[in-house]
Specification:
The complex is a heterodimer of chains A (about 350) and B (about 350). Chain A has a two-stranded antiparallel ribbon. Chain A has a single domain, classed as ABC transporter involved in vitamin B12 uptake, BtuC (Orthogonal Bundle), CATH 1.10.3470. Chain A contains 15 helices and two strands. Chain A is mostly helical and about 350 residues long. Helices cover about 75% and strands about 0% of the residues of chain A. Chain A has helices at about 1-35, 55-60, 65-80, 85-105, 110-135, 140-160, 170-175, 185-205, 210-215, 220-225, 230-255, 265-275, 290-310, 315-330, 335-359, and strands at about 40-45, 50-55. Chain A is globular. Chain B is an alpha/beta fold. Chain B folds into two domains: about 25-155 and about 295-315, Response regulator (Rossmann fold), CATH 3.40.50.2300; about 160-295 and about 330-345, 3-Layer(aba) Sandwich (Rossmann fold), CATH 3.40.50.2300. Chain B is elongated and about 65 Å long. Classes of the chains: A mainly alpha (about 350), B alpha/beta (about 350).
Chain lengths: ~350, ~350
């Protein structure tokens, strides 16, 4: 009875095994290298406010945009069976709109910041729905459909502000990007937690999860059951658009400046990778958002580890690639099956041994 | 109904793109097709008074970077009718488009052709055509792989010199020890190679100690992460050498969060490059120590050379490769003035 339950737990969560193993290996490796690697200390910043410090905080903080994008990417992947490669460009557009609205007002107040966030969310969702319409209504492959925005997105971001690196200095922006005075936890971490709660509430209260999965598994079957697959895909892309807006706002607020060419550059690949490491099927269908989140943290932890190891700049990408190859192969169905078979054999052997002993 | 919504949304999208496209049309108006240039040409010729020097400028588009934006504006401001020029401009990031535009300029019968090429190769035929048509060619910002006989002169930056200037300034501080965090640009780019070279020489000679040398590929946020990881490792450092302003800003953000002071007479020396206006203001406020210039202002030098040729003189001061190296400054936070920011600062 007990054993059954255990294997049930394993079966339910085996998807999370790969990102968890990756994180555990990185943690052990780092502790071995430097026992104080994950120590967190309370220091005060240049404004004299208490802030938490340490590699752990750097990882959690630095991964914020990636985690939020990975959450949205999971939904798009599940619903459409493809990936959106325009998230970085879309985040740059959203960030530009954010800056544009802030610079339009006479001064930056809580109200104008709120207005700017709402504006950039709306714009990003419109662009997201553009991707969504191409995919759901016209049936274009997601990667091709989003290639359009991937190519032109950063130019659009440039047009919005017209300058190379506009800056917006304000205590409120600083509070969004780094620390709210008095709270020692970096604000981006809080925003990630908030977004996570929002998604879990959404899944609890609505049938969104079920609908997305059924559209992803079999579109025709879903339609025959009365699920509007066009609407569901569109919705997934719009949610991802909103995620891009949040990521863009965090990215801009971190340094109070937007560089439309480098803001969250190449993050689309990391976001897709996070979804893959999280054990989600890139062909759509069932998904576990927590897997993608863990995958995103694993990627960030890998980056920080490489920085801490002082890997030469020219070699960073190669090292990253090696680790990723290992992770992806470990998560492949072939290896998984072989592992399951081995586990089964091992268990049978033990049972027969135990039976013999009892006899 | 739903289809209607979908249609409406696409409509919105198209409208927003169109809106965006319309907005920058004013500053970037010269970015027209070569065909359009041709149509406009006869009218312009009629309108242009006798005696104006006809100049064709082939450049990269201002959206490329803050540097390019300043570069484009510099040429627009110098080659004006008031200064005695009838100038036509063409912008593209694609070499073949640039080539056809240059050919069009030659057919239009310009006197001088000014080129900042997207790629270094493929220009020989066009430059020969220009020579046959008696058109003098000047290169600016970027060199072209060709026989130096085909152009009059090239006005370019020496990225290695920028690095030298910065490192010499750093040495002049005479710090008791140099523990340097070196944040590099995109690996292999001209700016990265030039700005890294001088510092690498110091690391090798042992005069400076390399705490970390890592690329942030011009990404501000990545630069912040790199500095954070050094702070977390508790290794001592007292210099941050970032290969552009954005990455220096990222590095400073990490220092601020960790409660480490930076700037004039503080714990950490902060160095950046490119001279954006906002970066120079940080210098003026004493938050940073140094900013190296990469001069986008080549128009005046070229204009002077054209005037020399027009008055029958010969161009002097060229090096063996027929280049004139732009004079590039490094700004020290202790000496910078508001005037410097207005003159040399890029952007707003």
């Amino acid at each position: 009875m007990n054993k059954n339950k255990q294997s049930g737990f394993l079966a339910n969560h085996s998807q999370l095994l790969i990102p968890l193993i990756a994180i555990v290996i990185l943690v052990i490796f780092n502790l071995f290298r430097d026992p104080s690697f994950f120590s967190v200390s309370l220091a005060s910043n240049n404004n004299g406010e208490p802030v938490l410090q340490g590699n752990l905080i750097s990882i959690l903080n630095g991964a914020s945009e990636l985690v939020i994008l990975a959450m949205g990417m999971t939904l798009v992947t599940a619903a459409s069976g493809g990936q959106d490669i325009s998230v970085g460009a879309l985040a740059a557009i959203a960030g530009s709109v954010f800056v544009k609205v802030l610079k339009g007002g006479p001064s930056i107040s809580a109200f104008t910041v709120l207005l700017a966030v709402i504006c950039c969310c709306i714009v990003a969702m419109i662009f997201g729905s553009f991707n969504g319409v191409l995919v759901s209504v016209f049936g274009i492959q997601p990667m091709i459909a989003t290639l359009i925005l991937f190519t032109c997105g950063r130019s659009i971001a440039y047009w919005i502000n017209g300058g190379a690196t506009p800056t917006v200095e304000s205590p409120i922006i600083n509070a969004i990007g780094s620390f709210i005075p008095g709270i020692p936890v970096p604000t981006p971490i809080l925003i990630v937690i908030l977004t996570g709660i929002l998604f879990s509430v959404l899944f609890r209260l609505t049938t969104l999860r079920l609908y997305i999965q059924s559209v992803g598994i079999n579109q025709r079957a879903a339609r025959l059951n009365g699920i509007n697959h066009v609407g569901i895909k569109l919705l997934a892309f719009m949610i991802l658009g909103a995620c891009c807006a949040i990521a863009g706002v965090i990215g801009v607020s971190r340094l109070s400046l937007i560089n439309h060419e480098t803001l969250l550059i190449n993050i689309e690949m990391d976001a897709i990778l996070a979804v893959a490491i999280g054990g989600n099927n890139l062909g759509g269908g069932k998904f576990r958002m927590i897997g993608s989140v863990l995958g995103a943290y694993a990627i960030q932890m890998l980056t920080i580890t490489l920085y801490a190891m002082k890997v030469p700049s020219t070699d960073v990408k190669a090292y990253k690639a090696i680790v990723i190859i290992i992770l992806v192969v470990m998560g492949s169905p072939v290896v998984k099956e072989a592992f399951d078979r081995y586990l089964k054999k091992f268990r049978e052997k033990r049972e027969t041994l135990a039976g013999k002993e009892a006899a | 109904m739903k289809k209607l919504i979908a249609l409406l949304l696409t409509g919105c999208m198209v409208a927003s793109i169109a809106g965006c496209a319309a907005a920058p049309a004013a500053p970037a108006a010269p970015a027209a097709e070569p065909a359009a240039e041709e149509e406009a040409a006869p009218a312009e010729e009629a309108a242009a008074a006798e005696g104006l020097i006809k100049v064709g400028v082939v450049n990269n588009p201002p959206s490329e970077s803050g540097y390019r934006e300043a570069n484009v504006n510099d040429f627009i401001n110098v080659f004006t009718a008031d200064n005695g020029y009838d100038a036509k401009f063409f912008y593209s990031i694609k070499n073949d488009e640039q080539l056809s535009a240059a050919r069009q300029f030659i057919t239009d019968g310009i006197d001088y052709l000014l080129i900042s090429a997207a790629e270094t190769t493929g220009w020989d035929a066009v430059l020969k055509d220009a020579q046959d048509a008696g058109i003098s060619v000047f290169l600016f910002d970027r060199m072209i792989d060709c026989d130096p006989e085909l152009f009059e002169a090239a006005v370019v930056s020496d990225m290695a010199q920028e690095g030298e200037t910065a490192v010499n300034w750093l040495l002049s501080l005479d710090l008791p020890e140099y523990n340097v965090i070196h944040i590099q640009g995109a690996m292999g780019s001209d700016a990265q190679l030039g700005r890294t070279g001088a510092l690498d020489a110091q690391f090798e000679s042992g005069k400076m100690n390399k705490v970390v040398q890592q690329t942030a590929t011009w990404d501000e946020a990545e630069a912040k992460k790199i500095v954070e990881s050094v702070i977390n490792s508790k290794e001592p450092f007292n210099v941050i050498y970032a290969e552009n302003d954005g990455m220096a800003k990222g590095a400073v953000a990490a220092l601020d969060e960790a409660g480490i002071t930076h700037g004039v007479d503080k714990d950490v020396v902060v160095m950046g490059f490119d001279c954006n206006k906002w970066a120079l203001r940080e210098l003026l406020a004493g938050n940073w120590n140094y900013d190296g210039q990469c001069s986008p202002f080549q128009a005046q030098v070229i204009s002077d050379m054209i005037q020399t040729l027009e008055s029958g003189g010969t161009i002097e001061g060229l090096n063996d490769a027929k280049q004139i190296i732009s004079v590039e400054k490094g700004f020290d936070a202790r000496e910078i003035t508001e005037e410097d920011i207005a003159t040399y600062g890029l952007g707003e």
